[in-house]
Design a protein that fits this description.
alpha/beta, Cytochrome Bc1 Complex, Chain C, 8 strands, binds protoporphyrin IX containing FE
Length: 507
């Protein structure tokens, strides 16, 4: 499979994180980290709400009290609230860029992409209303800028700016901003978050403990070193001169010094539309989706458990067979990753009853029968001793390229597509060693393929590799598209093991 240059570049850049953070690589947990920052924002926000006075005259003084009088608690909470919000923007932007670079938005995955974008556009106004509530000169600058932006929208008939005339600024308007920031926007955001992950299975919303603790400590240290402070109080009869902008949330306002509000809206709209329609600008090459063969399905539900995209459902048996359940694939949700085939215990290459291997669930464009054929052909074509067969993944390193006299590679849609019995079959049919190579560890293109395979090999998940198989002949090693050296090293490691296992001439 051809790897696009952006993906290649991104993976190369991410290699540094892989070696520095190992299992706690933050780039693999950007979505869950964003959730974690939300929890911090929520808890600190609830604390700040108690002493906060929601009126034009009370707001500034109450924030000042929190910052200076009760700096050790409310002050730290304020800083945490601000810095966790900034951190959330960083993780969201990285998450967006990562999904883009790794091309995880195509085909049926358009849904997560399209429901992710509005989250970004919801969080930025949430931050803006937060800065507004301090009612200092920065809030005044935001208020005026926002009024200009809203006045450019025809439905407001140019009426917003008048709210900020010194004589007009009212507690009622302030209460509206407070309602939006404290209740309206967070509730909509929560609903949008639920929509965003609705089509995925086994979604985790907490990062690994070490990463969560590390991020929290970093935020606390930042809050102590550089506490969040206010500008001088708002004064609508003057124009604020020198301001410290939070560029994560307020970057749009300086544009208003150069462009009209209409032009700023147009830019935002164009960027949004370009991003939204991305999955259709670069459509996925269509592969046939998984199909169920009831003749061979006993309704064990393992494929349902394994599918990362919730594309498989279970229903009562419809064909009168003795089994109680059957599975159904929704083609609109299936990404054709093939992980269900790897989880189907009837995808067993030892089955001799029929000439054609027909599992309960299969990929029509690359059926299990074809995989069995390619496995046998690869073993037959190898020469010499210590023959190693590498089962790879279309999204990892292109394993066909490591071909030598005694090494062959077969690439699958995902390493999770490999039924564990195929490993036993390969060893039985003449391979001396089997190397299973999915995407980089913990970074499966299809979310769980690499993890499920590893667990099946270790007998931690069904269908498991038979206990009788000699694990010394098997290695599993994640390798991204650029990790040729790592994969070659693993082949050499396995070969050395095989040489050691060889009975000595004297034995
Ligand atoms: C509030 C911000 C966001 C949060 C908390 C969030 C969270 C998550 C989580 C937890 C996942 C599941 C990861 C997994 O288990 O594999 C995910 C997946 C994803 N997100 Fe986000 N996300 C956010 C914003 C975005 C944005 C702005 C985009 C891009 C437009 C985006 C695009 C995606 C895509 C494409 C997936 C992958 C779906 C798949 O694997 O098929 N997300 N997100």
């Amino acid at each position: 499979m051809r790897i696009n240059p952006l993906r290649r570049l991104y993976i190369a850049a991410e290699t540094w994180f892989k070696y520095s953070f190992a299992e706690l690589n933050p780039m693999y947990h950007l979505g869950t980290l964003t959730f974690f920052f939300f929890w911090i924002i929520l808890v600190s926000g609830i604390y700040l709400f108690v002493p906060f006075k929601g009126s034009v005259h009370g707001a500034y003084a109450s924030v000042e009290w929190m910052t200076h009088q009760q700096w050790y608690l409310a002050g730290i909470m304020r800083s945490l609230h601000r810095y966790a919000s900034d951190a959330a923007i960083i993780t969201i932007l990285l998450h967006l860029f990562r999904e883009l670079a790794l091309v995880r938005y195509q085909g049926t995955r358009w849904y997560s992409w399209v429901t992710g974008l509005p989250l970004l556009w919801m969080i930025i106004p949430l931050g803006i209303t937060g800065y507004w509530l301090v009612w200092d000169q920065l809030a005044q600058y935001i208020a005026m800028g926002s009024a200009h932006l809203f006045d450019a929208i025809p439905i407001f008939f140019g009426s917003m700016a008048s709210n900020f005339l010194p004589s007009q600024m009212s507690d009622r308007f302030f209460t509206l901003i407070m309602f939006l920031h404290l209740l309206g926007q967070p509730l909509i955001l929560l609903f949008a978050l639920w929509l965003h992950v609705r089509r995925l299975s086994n979604v985790n919303i907490m990062p690994p403990r070490g990463l969560a603790i590390g991020s929290f400590i970093a935020l606390i240290i930042l809050s102590l070193i550089k506490p969040a402070l206010s500008h001088p109080p708002a004064d609508l009869s003057t124009v604020p001169q020198s301001l410290n902008l939070d560029w994560f949330y307020l970057n749009i306002y300086p544009l208003l010094d150069y462009w009209t509000a209409g032009q700023v809206w147009l830019l935002t709209l164009v960027i949004t539309l370009l991003l939204i329609f991305l999955p259709w600008f670069f459509p996925k090459r269509a592969k046939a989706t998984a199909v169920v063969d009831l003749e061979n399905c006993d309704g064990c539900k393992q494929c349902f458990e394994d599918c990362p995209y919730d594309a498989i459902t279970v229903q009562a048996r419809t064909d009168g067979k003795k089994h109680s359940h059957e599975v159904v694939v929704d083609p609109a949700l299936c990404t054709s990753c093939g992980i269900c085939v790897g989880g189907c215990h009837s995808a067993n290459p030892f089955r001799k009853a029929e000439k054609i291997l027909r599992p309960g669930i299969d990929m029509p464009d690359f059926p299990a029968h074809e995989l069995r054929k390619r496995t046998l052909a690869a073993i037959d074509s190898m020469q010499g001793k210590h023959k190693i067969l590498v089962f790879g993944c279309d999204h990892g390193y292109a394993v066909e390229r490591i071909k030598t006299d005694n090494t062959r590679g077969i690439s699958l849609y995902c390493s999770g597509m490999l039924p564990p019995t195929m490993i036993r079959f390969a060893l039985r049919k003449g391979a001396d060693g089997v190397l299973v190579s999915g995407c980089r560890s913990n970074d499966c293109y299809n979310r769980f393929g690499e993890r499920w395979t590893e667990m099946r090999i270790l007998s931690d998940r069904q269908p498991s590799l038979r206990a009788g198989v000699d694990h010394r002949h098997i290695i599993s090693q994640g390798a991204g598209p650029i990790d040729r050296k790592a994969l070659e090293k693993s082949v050499q490691r396995l070969r050395k093991k095989l040489i050691k296992l060889e009975p000595k001439a004297s034995e």
